[in-house]
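Q: Hi! First time asking for a complex rather than a single chain. Here are the components, and I think there are two in total. Is that enough to go on?
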Amino acid sequence: MTRWTRICALTDIPSLGSRVVESTGEERIAVFRSSADQVFALRDRCPHKAGPLSQGIVHGTTVTCPLHGWKIRFEDGQVVAPDVGCAKPYPVKVEGGDVFLQI
Amino acid sequence: MRKLKLVMVGNGMAGVRTLEELRKIAPDMYDITVFGAEPHPNYNRILLSPVLAGEMTIQDIILNDLQWYADNGITLHLGARVTEIDRRNRSVIATDRKGGTITVDYDRLLMATGSTPFMPPFPGRDLPGVISYRDIKDTDEMIAAAATYPHAVVIGAGLLGLEAANGLALRGMKVTVVHNSEWIMERQLDRTAGKMLQAELEKKGMRFRMNAQTAELVAGASGRVAAVKFKDGESIPADLVCVAAGIRPNVELAEKAGIHCNRGIVVNDTLQTYDPRIYAVGECANHRGTAYGLVAPLFEQAKVCANHLAEMGISRYQGSVTSTKLKVTGIDVFSAGDFSGSDGAEDIVLHDPGLGIYKRIVLKDDKLVGAVLYGDTKDGAWYFQLLKDEQDISDIRDHLVFGNAHLGDVGHKGGNVAASMPDSAEICGCNGVCKGTIVKAIQEHGLFSLEDVRRHTKASSSCGSCTGLVEQILASTVGGAYQPADSNNRAVCGCTDLSHGEVRKAIREHKLLSVADAQRHLGWRTPNGCATCRPALNYYCLSTWPHEATDDPQSRFINERAHANIQKDGSYSVVPRMWGGLTTPAELRAIADAAEKYKVPTVKVTGGQRIDLLGVKKEDLPGIWSDLAKAGMVSGHAYGKSLRTVKTCVGAEHCRFGTQRAMELGVKLEKMLYGMWSPHKVKLAVSGCPRNCAEAGIKDVGVIGVDSGYEIYIGGNGGIKTEVAQFFAKAKDDDEVMAYSGAFIQLYREEGFYLERTCHYLERVGMEHVRQRVLEDADSRRALHERLLFALQDYTDPWAEICEDPSGGPRKREFETIKVQEREI
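A: Yes, that's all I need. Here is the structure of the assembled complex.
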């Protein structure tokens, strides 16, 4: 069963930064915050060589993987062309200044 | 908002390139209609020669297929000829293939009508079998003629004429080239190179008639052309006459519409004609008196024109320097710039008739202004770069003519070997990309630039040492369409058109104090830049305005945010600083304890004389730092674009050969530079005597002790391309070493481009500039040194800063993961 779980306050995630969520039975999940305070969640694993996306530089609604510079879009987890691949996106929302993740 | 209507007349490379650029930056601004007189979509006209020579097919050279026009919502009228521009009503009137009339309104009109071959007015020019060499139709006709007839005559021995002659000869025809000057390709080659080329082509079976004036083309019994008759009365048989006597810009349509033309449609620096709603690009346009016929400048025009059409208005076209390469397999000819021998120009010539090699480079005011290469053109791109960058070559003048190739290793700017490599040859060792993959990507995606190839194949995108090879593959695959980028003025990234130099200047002049400020002020196209520009902007703000600019951790690469080096599995490596490579039993004990406590899997001695703890989890970083800090250790910055190490030998302190106290000076230098951010990493070394055990010859700053003091070397590099440091200055004591090297490093910090090592910085600005600012001008040296010390004062160790944050503050929290319990319902 999936359910919404509060993970942290919005302010716990730096603007244009990320935090890592670890839960039992799931892969590590990276939660990102854009400069417009939108929040997105992706499996913390680049489809290229499994780099930790949470450690990349965030720009717009895209993160650049720290290992080899692949770019992954937040909205759908798709890799920016010409590279091909996908990091699993997770539903995430902000309510009353708190961030909730569906896992 | 209503979409504006853009109509383009012409469907060639320059015009379509403009549309491509426009779609990139303003995809929804215009409804676009294109009129093309030829029945084909946009193709690479430059590659018609390989098609004629049978090395490629028409399909290989299509750049944008019909699907591309459909995908981009462009209305395409093929085989339609525009007959009139009605400027008053802002519409164009065209006749389609069936004779019907099409009228389309425009808000902006783009003239990309190209050029037509010039047909000299001799009698017989309209006979069957007399053609020019311009498009697919001409090429088809030549291929057909070569299958039936034996004799071909090519009139005009320019680039195009010779390529046509070569193609026809390869298809089995007996070809005579007729030319009205003393030597062939007289606009691109000097006499010697022209004669060498002619001899080589004669060996391939071509015949030449020089200084020949064509009187008329004579018809045979069938009514088809049969002979060429010269003014001296002689005549030679000709079943096919290909006239390649130059091109003329297509201006009739523009002239008829009353747009000012003078050997081309006259345009300004934003590619606008005298009617500002009407633009012109490509071979039809005359910019500052020149109508360009080569593709590279046309692509530059396309970019500027698109920028202006998108109403961004921040770029200007200011003319191009061009280079030429002949596309005849097996013959290497290259020329660039001016070699006509103007006042004050000097020639350096290397000529070996036995090997068939001729190189002539022309210098003026210590700069390269022209080059002609025959037989060995592998350094063409390098010379061209020097020419475009207007680099001072006085330092390398003595070996300039031998080229850059002898400096290369691992293919770096290496020999012109790419063309002869098999498809399976590995080009990029970092990303495992072979030649075949690169060639395929270039052909399938229609790539023209190094950046494009990097994006699509990853070749040369990591360490960059194979850049030269990739450039060669590009050049041999797309022909003259490839032009090496202007290294000094290249845009920082896709978020802006500004170069590193322009960005640095603006940050200084307008006192921009943060990444966001700079992006706003400089009109960045993206909301928060990208992973390429943000770290550069952050560094430029911090280095220009120390203690005033705001550091943005999110604009730093993860290593500089986590103060440790990320590894392939996402763990980190920790390197405590060991000043001058010195340590103590107590420090070693603390390192050993920390390694055991945090279960560090690998402990390694680094090349910079310190100890690396590899495989630390991010969550453990603050803990391990805090343990190391208790033993008095600080961050080694082994992860940053910053001061790395000062490597030392044991020096006069212990060594029986030592002349100077190397360890002591090394520690002093490292303490002076501690906490310094720089364009790229900076490494130093101090050796106590000329035996140089600290390997000072491959460091950014290398100091070697001699009996009378020290010698300082700068710009060395032990990395991708091993570069030996150059002698910079002699210093009499430690203080002088600190003053000279500090001033040099500060100059590099203020002028270097982000990710430019000192060796590349030196190559760009020249040793003379650094000598002038640091050695000759004592005031300048003092000021530089003082600015360095000011920037570095009050630096706190980043480990301590994060660990000692009493609130367990946000910086420290970022190292922690959020643990969530999954609950069953």
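A: Chain A has a mean pLDDT of 91. Let me know if you'd like any chain examined more closely.
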